[in-house]
Specification:
The chain has helices at about 1-15, 75-80, 105-110, 155-165; strands spanning about 20-25, 30-35, 40-50, 55-65, 85, 90-95, 100, 110-120, 130-135, 135-140, 150-155. With about 170 residues, the protein is α+β, with helices and mostly antiparallel strands. The strands form two sheets. Strands 1, 2, 3, 4, 7, 8, 10 and 11 form an eight-stranded mixed β-sheet that branches. A three-stranded antiparallel β-sheet has the order 6-5-9. The longest helix has 12 residues, at about 1-15. It is elongated.
Protein backbone atom coordinates (compact mmCIF):
# COMPACT_ATOMS: atom_id res chain seq x y z
CA UNK A 1 0.00 0.00 0.00
CA UNK A 2 2.83 2.38 0.88
CA UNK A 3 4.46 1.77 -2.54
CA UNK A 4 1.21 2.64 -4.33
CA UNK A 5 0.92 5.94 -2.43
CA UNK A 6 4.53 6.84 -3.16
CA UNK A 7 4.09 6.03 -6.86
CA UNK A 8 0.91 8.13 -7.01
CA UNK A 9 2.66 11.07 -5.33
CA UNK A 10 5.59 10.87 -7.74
CA UNK A 11 3.30 10.66 -10.76
CA UNK A 12 1.29 13.66 -9.59
CA UNK A 13 4.48 15.66 -9.20
CA UNK A 14 5.56 14.98 -12.79
CA UNK A 15 2.70 16.90 -14.36
CA UNK A 16 2.50 20.65 -14.42
CA UNK A 17 -0.46 22.01 -12.47
CA UNK A 18 -2.91 24.10 -14.45
CA UNK A 19 -4.96 27.14 -13.46
CA UNK A 20 -7.88 28.48 -15.52
CA UNK A 21 -7.22 31.85 -17.17
CA UNK A 22 -10.29 32.39 -19.36
CA UNK A 23 -11.14 31.70 -22.97
CA UNK A 24 -9.72 32.30 -26.42
CA UNK A 25 -10.43 31.40 -30.04
CA UNK A 26 -8.35 28.55 -31.40
CA UNK A 27 -8.31 29.46 -35.07
CA UNK A 28 -6.96 27.44 -37.96
CA UNK A 29 -3.48 27.17 -36.41
CA UNK A 30 -4.77 24.86 -33.66
CA UNK A 31 -3.39 21.34 -33.44
CA UNK A 32 -6.02 18.65 -33.99
CA UNK A 33 -6.13 15.08 -32.69
CA UNK A 34 -8.75 12.44 -33.39
CA UNK A 35 -9.69 9.12 -31.92
CA UNK A 36 -12.17 6.40 -32.81
CA UNK A 37 -14.12 3.81 -30.89
CA UNK A 38 -14.46 0.24 -32.10
CA UNK A 39 -18.19 0.90 -32.71
CA UNK A 40 -17.49 3.83 -35.07
CA UNK A 41 -18.01 6.72 -32.65
CA UNK A 42 -15.23 9.32 -32.62
CA UNK A 43 -13.82 12.29 -30.71
CA UNK A 44 -11.75 15.27 -31.88
CA UNK A 45 -9.60 17.56 -29.74
CA UNK A 46 -8.05 20.92 -30.70
CA UNK A 47 -5.44 22.93 -28.79
CA UNK A 48 -2.98 25.78 -29.11
CA UNK A 49 -0.25 27.31 -26.98
CA UNK A 50 0.10 30.95 -26.01
CA UNK A 51 2.18 32.97 -23.58
CA UNK A 52 0.67 34.09 -20.29
CA UNK A 53 2.89 36.22 -18.06
CA UNK A 54 5.99 34.20 -18.87
CA UNK A 55 4.38 30.77 -18.64
CA UNK A 56 2.86 28.37 -21.18
CA UNK A 57 -0.90 28.56 -21.49
CA UNK A 58 -2.86 25.80 -23.24
CA UNK A 59 -6.23 26.55 -24.84
CA UNK A 60 -8.45 23.74 -26.05
CA UNK A 61 -11.81 22.28 -26.91
CA UNK A 62 -13.12 18.84 -27.80
CA UNK A 63 -16.17 17.44 -29.55
CA UNK A 64 -17.89 14.15 -30.13
CA UNK A 65 -17.85 13.72 -33.90
CA UNK A 66 -20.06 10.69 -33.96
CA UNK A 67 -21.66 9.44 -30.81
CA UNK A 68 -23.27 6.16 -29.96
CA UNK A 69 -25.36 4.87 -27.10
CA UNK A 70 -22.51 2.52 -26.21
CA UNK A 71 -19.76 5.14 -25.94
CA UNK A 72 -21.54 8.30 -24.74
CA UNK A 73 -20.86 7.55 -21.07
CA UNK A 74 -17.12 6.98 -21.71
CA UNK A 75 -16.09 10.16 -23.56
CA UNK A 76 -15.15 11.96 -20.32
CA UNK A 77 -12.75 9.15 -19.43
CA UNK A 78 -10.94 9.63 -22.73
CA UNK A 79 -10.68 13.38 -22.16
CA UNK A 80 -9.49 12.81 -18.56
CA UNK A 81 -6.67 10.57 -19.83
CA UNK A 82 -5.58 12.96 -22.59
CA UNK A 83 -2.48 15.09 -22.37
CA UNK A 84 -0.61 17.92 -24.06
CA UNK A 85 3.14 17.75 -24.72
CA UNK A 86 5.56 20.48 -25.70
CA UNK A 87 9.10 19.53 -26.70
CA UNK A 88 8.55 16.04 -25.30
CA UNK A 89 7.44 17.16 -21.85
CA UNK A 90 3.88 16.97 -20.53
CA UNK A 91 2.51 20.45 -19.82
CA UNK A 92 -1.12 19.44 -19.18
CA UNK A 93 -2.50 16.06 -18.23
CA UNK A 94 -6.22 15.50 -18.08
CA UNK A 95 -8.05 17.64 -20.62
CA UNK A 96 -11.24 18.17 -18.61
CA UNK A 97 -10.45 21.91 -18.53
CA UNK A 98 -11.22 21.99 -22.26
CA UNK A 99 -14.61 23.20 -23.38
CA UNK A 100 -16.87 20.62 -24.99
CA UNK A 101 -17.92 22.03 -28.35
CA UNK A 102 -21.29 21.24 -29.87
CA UNK A 103 -19.68 19.71 -32.95
CA UNK A 104 -16.39 19.34 -34.78
CA UNK A 105 -16.79 22.53 -36.85
CA UNK A 106 -16.86 24.53 -33.64
CA UNK A 107 -13.39 23.34 -32.57
CA UNK A 108 -11.37 25.86 -34.56
CA UNK A 109 -14.15 28.41 -35.10
CA UNK A 110 -15.48 28.47 -31.54
CA UNK A 111 -14.21 29.49 -28.13
CA UNK A 112 -11.82 27.33 -26.10
CA UNK A 113 -11.04 27.24 -22.39
CA UNK A 114 -7.47 28.12 -21.41
CA UNK A 115 -5.26 27.13 -18.50
CA UNK A 116 -1.80 28.32 -17.52
CA UNK A 117 0.87 25.81 -16.57
CA UNK A 118 3.96 26.23 -14.43
CA UNK A 119 6.18 25.64 -17.49
CA UNK A 120 8.12 28.71 -18.72
CA UNK A 121 7.25 30.31 -22.05
CA UNK A 122 10.10 30.73 -24.50
CA UNK A 123 9.93 32.88 -27.63
CA UNK A 124 10.69 29.87 -29.85
CA UNK A 125 7.41 28.26 -28.68
CA UNK A 126 5.47 30.78 -30.79
CA UNK A 127 6.07 28.46 -33.77
CA UNK A 128 5.67 25.20 -31.85
CA UNK A 129 2.61 23.01 -32.19
CA UNK A 130 1.59 21.08 -29.08
CA UNK A 131 1.34 17.30 -29.33
CA UNK A 132 -2.04 15.95 -28.23
CA UNK A 133 -2.24 12.40 -26.95
CA UNK A 134 -5.43 10.41 -26.39
CA UNK A 135 -4.28 7.07 -24.93
CA UNK A 136 -5.78 3.78 -26.08
CA UNK A 137 -8.39 2.48 -23.65
CA UNK A 138 -10.52 -0.65 -23.42
CA UNK A 139 -13.85 -0.85 -21.61
CA UNK A 140 -16.05 -3.85 -20.87
CA UNK A 141 -16.01 -7.29 -22.38
CA UNK A 142 -14.15 -9.05 -19.60
CA UNK A 143 -13.71 -12.81 -19.52
CA UNK A 144 -17.09 -14.52 -19.37
CA UNK A 145 -18.87 -11.20 -19.78
CA UNK A 146 -21.88 -10.59 -22.01
CA UNK A 147 -20.85 -6.94 -22.12
CA UNK A 148 -19.61 -5.55 -25.44
CA UNK A 149 -15.91 -4.70 -25.50
CA UNK A 150 -15.24 -1.09 -26.53
CA UNK A 151 -11.79 -0.01 -27.65
CA UNK A 152 -10.73 3.61 -28.14
CA UNK A 153 -7.58 4.55 -30.04
CA UNK A 154 -6.07 7.73 -31.38
CA UNK A 155 -5.78 7.82 -35.14
CA UNK A 156 -3.21 9.44 -37.42
CA UNK A 157 -4.09 12.46 -39.55
CA UNK A 158 -4.21 10.38 -42.76
CA UNK A 159 -6.64 7.93 -41.11
CA UNK A 160 -8.78 10.88 -40.06
CA UNK A 161 -9.11 12.06 -43.67
CA UNK A 162 -10.22 8.57 -44.73
CA UNK A 163 -12.69 8.42 -41.82
CA UNK A 164 -14.44 11.60 -42.98
CA UNK A 165 -14.50 10.62 -46.65
CA UNK A 166 -16.54 7.55 -45.69
CA UNK A 167 -19.25 9.65 -44.03
Amino acid sequence: MRIVLIAAALAAGCVAPTDPIGRDRLGQEATLAHGVWSDGASISVAAKLKPHYGRIAVCGAWAVDRGSALTDSFHDRIIDAGLVRVDGRVVAQGLRFMRQAADRRELTDGVANCVVTDQPWEARLADTQPVLRLPRQVFGGGTGSDEQRLVFRQIAANEEVLLWRKS
